[in-house]
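thought: user wants a sequence for this fold. calling inverse folding tool.
action: design(structure=
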């Protein structure tokens, strides 16, 4: 079984290393899906996908405006389009998806939603200074995420200045976790109606680089469930052919 991990020009090794466990490598092979190499043909050989973090998504793809605070010097439109192909393929062929940070924002955009372009003063909790910010998260109890982590709240890590716009969610997207406080930033999304839809969990935090990722259910359980869903999906796929 193969896991396709979308290439990011920042911190890519963290995502790759997260799946380099000896036990995992017995069963799964990692495939780098890179907009720089444009290796689109490799998408079709993968059994599950990780959409990684990185540069802000091009605002034109969600009717955003420019300029805005902390806007990057340049966007990576080719990455947005390449990863759209990954996501569309995953949906068409019912392959599991795990979206992380930018990956979560991209899924909302691809489903027709919008982003908060900069969290401004509300972002003290989330913006990375020298290292990720740690803060609490609140989970919707009747959500897939709640089922996976088995908790109503916990500690997560953040490093972002944009967020999914809760007032402009994509089609069939629901919020499954948010940060506390009056400026409750969206921390996780999933499909509202999961019938006939493949497994998908998207989180704003970084499970791949949490300090206690081997014990924190907001990292450990998510990875374990993602791998299990790939196994289930690939098993069913191979059984039908």
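)
observation: tool returned 241 residues.
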């Amino acid at each position: 079984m193969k896991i396709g991990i979308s290439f990011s020009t920042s911190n890519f090794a963290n995502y790759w290393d997260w799946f380099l466990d000896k036990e995992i490598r017995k069963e799964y092979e990692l495939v780098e899906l890179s907009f720089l190499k444009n290796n689109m043909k490799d998408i079709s050989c993968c059994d599950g996908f990780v959409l990684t973090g990185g540069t802000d998504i091009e605002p034109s793809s969600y009717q955003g405006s420019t300029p805005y605070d902390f806007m990057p010097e340049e966007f990576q439109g080719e990455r947005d389009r390449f990863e759209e192909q990954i996501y569309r393929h995953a949906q068409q062929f019912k392959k599991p998806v795990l979206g992380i940070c930018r990956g979560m924002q991209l899924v909302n955009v691809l489903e027709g939603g919008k982003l908060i372009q900069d969290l401004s003063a509300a972002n003290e909790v989330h913006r990375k200074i020298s290292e990720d910010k740690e803060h609490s998260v609140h989970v919707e109890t009747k959500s897939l995420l709640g089922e996976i982590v088995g908790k109503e709240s916990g500690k997560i890590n953040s490093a972002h200045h944009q967020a999914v716009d809760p007032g402009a969610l994509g089609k069939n997207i629901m919020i499954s976790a948010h940060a506390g406080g009056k400026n409750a930033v969206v921390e996780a999304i999933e499909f509202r109606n999961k019938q006939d839809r493949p497994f998908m969990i998207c989180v704003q935090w970084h499970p791949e680089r949490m300090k206690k990722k081997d014990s924190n259910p907001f990292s450990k359980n998510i990875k374990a469930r993602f791998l299990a869903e790939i196994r289930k999906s690939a098993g069913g796929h191979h059984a039908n052919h």
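thought: summarizing for user.
answer: Here is the designed sequence. Residues 2-239 form a domain with the Rossmann fold fold (CATH 3.40.50.880).
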